[in-house]
Amino acid sequence: MGPNRFRAQVWLTWMLLVGLLVALCRHMGLDVAYVVDRLPFLLGLHLAPDGFIQGAALTLLVTGLSMVFALAVALLTALGRLSRNPVAFGVATFYASFFRGTPLMVQVLIIYLALPQVGLVLGALTSGLIALSLNYGAYLAETIRSGITSVPRGQWEAAAALGLSRGTTAWRVIAPQALRLIVPPAGALFISMLKDSSLVSLMGLWELSFLAQSYARATSHYMEMLFAAALIYWVLSIVFEIVQHRLEVRFGRGIVSRDATTHVA
Amino acid sequence: MPLVDIRNVSKHFGEQVVLQDVSLAVEAHAKVVICGPSGSGKSTLLRCVNGLAPYDGGSIEVDGTLVTQERSSLERVRRQVGMVFQSFNLFPHLTVLQNCTLAPMTVRHLSAAEARTEALARLERVHVAGLAERFPSELSGGEQQRVAIARALCMNPKVLLFDEPTSSLDPVMVHEVLDAIAELAESGMTTLCVTHELRFAQRLADNVIFMDKGAVIESGPPGQLFAAPRSEQLRTFLRREHLPAPGDVGPH
Asked: Considering only CB atoms, which chain B residues are within 8 Å of A250?
């Protein structure tokens, strides 16, 4: 089967499944007007009564900021894991072990509910950001570490022999090759983070899943509201995937060119 | 004063002796080939010259600079010494041209245009200028190795080190790479080449160093060395590498 025909049939299958889903929704007699009415709130086009952003906008804010912080933490941790300094290595492995070995929800609650007991009171948003960043940073660190170690030794040696500085070697030679391996698993982590950001609702933040639940409970429109929330998460995830794919193509240059011809067959 | 001056160099990995009391002087424009069985320390010696591997005893000087693991020494030495590896080690995410301009632009601070002009001239010198916009993965092994040579040349080194430059090539590509190296050496580039290609050593070198078990066993002009090996080690090596020494009558 040619690649074009395969792709066309995949599209067709998707359309069919989407059609089935729409038909199912119509059959259930869902209250579309209610969804349309509440959609601007779910998306976060209006501010919450307390003047804070809400809905999908808050979900994106939490995810976006946590991504940045998680990346920074993960990079430091990965360097610690690669370090010959026993203290740096120890700190990095200790941190990663704890945050990978305990549930995210427990971490959120420790930061938000347990820390005040010892006098450390953090706001809901801050707590959420810290918990998500530290948790995902621990996973991301491992991804970054393995990406860096997968770059062949000869690349470091060639850079050294040419007299490239450490900075040039890291950013122009090693990082682009490591990123090719880091982007796919990191993308999967960020998509998972997008969904786990719903945990910040535990602390009373009005993010997407929280709003959907409250609207659902208020008027018993469970199917409508939860389905709408799911759809918004789904669309956001697809956007993340598209970005990830673009990055993969970008960092795969030179290396993928050969795979691309053999891959289709 | 020799361009590369290796004096009584030794190196150990724990108990194991990798180099023992190796001395070798390479004059400017010299064409030196180091050969020997695998594990003889010849590649390690080469890597000590540009500081890719540290050594524990003796001294190596390149154009008057003592090679140490200090950053200032490494920076100076690597400006003078280019290296071509067995496995090419081109940067796969960069085009051929970018491979050749990265170091000139970041280390020599050339402008993009200057670096490009120089790189194209070096690529032309090894007959691969037409491949400038390709990625390494799109090239044959022989082409990749010639690009690697051009990349090293772009730093205007005073001496080029070749570490088994043809060992990972298909036989048909060995010649194009050896020809490129020979052309360079004949144009006056100081070359220090570790290789198994004894016929190439014969053709190119004005001095051949034979190493075994970390030590220099014999050295001399190739005609003399291969025609009249004095040591049993070299005789055995020549027999294995199918370059029968005169007087050796053995099954072939």
From this structure: none
How many angstroms separate the CA of residue B135 from the nearest CA in chain A?
Answer: 5
Give B 164-223 residues with CB within 8 A of chain A.
none
Nearest CA in chain A to B76: A163
Q: What is the ipTM of this complex?
A: 0.91
Report the chain A residue with the minimal C-alpha distance to residue B157. Answer: A162
Q: Report the 10 Å Cβ neighbour count for B199.
A: 14
Lookup: tokens for B125: 């010198």
Domain span including residue A213 = 33-45+54-256
Per-residue pLDDT reduced to its tens digit, B6-40: 999 999 988 899 999 999 999 999 999 999 998 89
Asked if the C-beta of A249 comes within 8 angstroms of chain B's C-beta atoms, the answer is no
Put simply, the answer to whether A255 touches B50 (Cβ < 8 Å) is no
Chain A (138-177) residues lying within 8 Å, Cβ to Cβ, of chain B: 152, 154-155, 157-158, 160-165, 168, 172-173, 176-177
Complete edge-to-edge strand list for the sheet that includes strand B215-220: B81-84, B159-163, B190-194, B31-35, B207-212, B215-220
**Would you give the DSSP letter of residue A55?**
H
Q: Nearest chain A Cα to B138, which residue?
A: A258
Q: How far is B50 from chain A (nearest CA, A)?
A: 7
- pLDDT tens, position by position, B28-74: 999 999 999 988 999 999 999 999 999 999 999 999 999 999 999 99
* A154 neighbourhood in chain B, CB within 8 Å: 85, 87, 89
Q: For chain A, 265 residues long, give each residue's pLDDT as a single digit of tens.
A: 688 999 999 999 999 999 999 898 888 888 888 888 889 988 988 888 888 888 999 999 999 999 999 999 999 999 999 999 999 999 999 999 999 999 999 999 999 999 999 999 998 899 999 999 999 999 999 999 999 999 999 999 999 999 999 999 999 999 999 999 999 999 999 999 999 999 888 888 888 999 899 998 988 888 889 999 999 999 999 999 999 999 999 998 887 544 444 333 3
How far, in Å, CA of B93 to CA of B99, rounded? 9
Residue A149 lies in a domain: yes
Q: To 10 degrees, the CA torsion angle through A80, A86, A91, A93?
A: 70
Strands (E) located in chain B: 4-13, 16-26, 31-35, 57-62, 65-66, 81-84, 159-163, 190-194, 207-212, 215-220
Residue ranges per structural domain of chain B: 4-92+159-240
Which residues have CB under 8 Å from B28's CB, separation 6+? Answer: B3, B158, B190
Tokens (6 digits) for B221? 């002009």
CATH fold group of domain B4-92+159-240: Rossmann fold (3.40.50)
Residue A165 distance to chain B (closest CA, Å): 8
Is A75 inside a domain boundary? yes
What's B245's DSSP letter? P
Whether A19 is in a domain gets the answer no
Closest-approach residue (CA) in chain B for A152: B89
In a domain, A16, yes or no: no
Number of domains forming the structure of chain A: 1
Which residues of chain B neighbour A255 with C-beta distances below 8 Å? Answer: 92-93, 135, 137
The predicted-structure confidence for A89-142, as pLDDT tens digits, reads as follows 999 999 999 999 999 999 999 999 999 999 999 988 999 999 999 999 999 999
We report the CATH number of the domain holding residue A245 as 1.10.3720.10
